[in-house]
Amino acid sequence: MTAARRSAGTETGLDVLLRWVWIRRRTPAQDIEDFRNGQPLQVVGFTKSIGGAVMVSVGRGKQIARTRQGY
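The structure corresponding to this sequence follows.
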């Protein structure tokens, strides 16, 4: 089985630096083609519901649900 790679929209600090020096990463179109050919992709997502919502104070008595990151 082929190791999963990050999707085109997922960036690390290194990816940002490479973009600044005009080194291009993969495109969403390449991701679609790879997915159709069976290549697993790792995609970052955020959720409010897994593990229950945690409310965080944002000042002046207001609270928002904190999102959790996952792959």
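The mean pLDDT is 79.
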